[in-house]
Specification:
The protein is of the alpha+beta class. Helices cover 46% and strands 20% of the residues. The N terminus is likely disordered. This is Tellurite resistance protein TerB.
């Protein structure tokens, strides 16, 4: 009698097994859903707008299908107009509160802008210190002392903050009047010693383009400051 000496191959053994050789695909994804709609004062648009209260939550996926939530929902408010997102506490603030907070932020940013301009040559003189302190109290309505000024100078120097880079970043929130006022503050601080160094002249000239001012607007702002 003939003997069958053939050996079953692994392929033959598992042929017909639908799970052999398959890969289980597991991953994560974030799902975002709208929970609520309404109206609020948008700090970005600076006018009342409609919003969506949204919830973002991570899910475990199996074969790309969300199956199990693996974290708590993260809530945020999104403006329907500018699409910027905010913490839900933004809905608790009215227009007057937002405007007050924005005005205080502008004053702080203007003071910092004036500080980094005076530090372009690597030091700050007594005349510049006096000009910055007067600038805060007399022009911007913000009292601060030498200790706070020293802290601002130290932070700027330790982090190598460049005047042009800083103003370019913060000025995106300023309106036209604030841009002119900030330029005048920087000029007052930079010219406290009576003569502008080449470095300060150069950075003040760069501010015209950074602040998106026309030649006439820039010159008028400087002339008004000199008067």
């Amino acid at each position: 009698m003939a003997v069958d000496r053939s050996v079953e191959s692994p392929v033959d053994r598992h042929r017909g097994d639908p799970y052999h050789g398959s890969m289980i695909l597991i991953g994560t994804t974030n799902l975002t859903r709208t929970r609520e709609r309404g109206n609020f004062y948008c700090p970005g648009c600076r006018v009342p707008q409609t919003f969506r209260l949204r919830a973002r939550r991570p899910w475990l996926t199996l074969y790309f299908i969300p199956t199990v939530p693996i974290g708590g929902p993260e809530l945020f408010v999104q403006c329907d107009q500018c699409k910027q997102t905010w913490d839900p506490t933004v809905m608790q603030m009215d227009q007057a509160t937002h405007e007050m907070a924005a005005a205080e932020q502008f004053v702080d940013e203007t003071i910092r802008s004036a500080v980094v301009v005076t530090l372009i040559d690597g030091s700050i003189s007594e005349a510049e210190i006096a000009a910055l302190l007067d600038l805060g109290s007399d022009r911007l309505g913000r009292e601060f002392d030498r200790e706070e000024l020293g802290r601002l100078c130290s932070i700027a120097q330790q982090n190598g903050i460049k005047a042009a880079n800083y103003v370019l970043t913060v000025s995106t929130r300023w309106d036209q009047g604030q841009r002119v006022e900030a330029l005048q503050a920087m000029f007052l601080a930079a010219s406290a010693e009576g003569e502008l160094s080449d470095e300060k002249l150069k950075v003040l000239a760069e501010m015209r383009e950074i602040l998106n001012l026309s030649d006439n607007e820039y010159e008028a702002a400087i002339e008004a400051t000199l008067r």
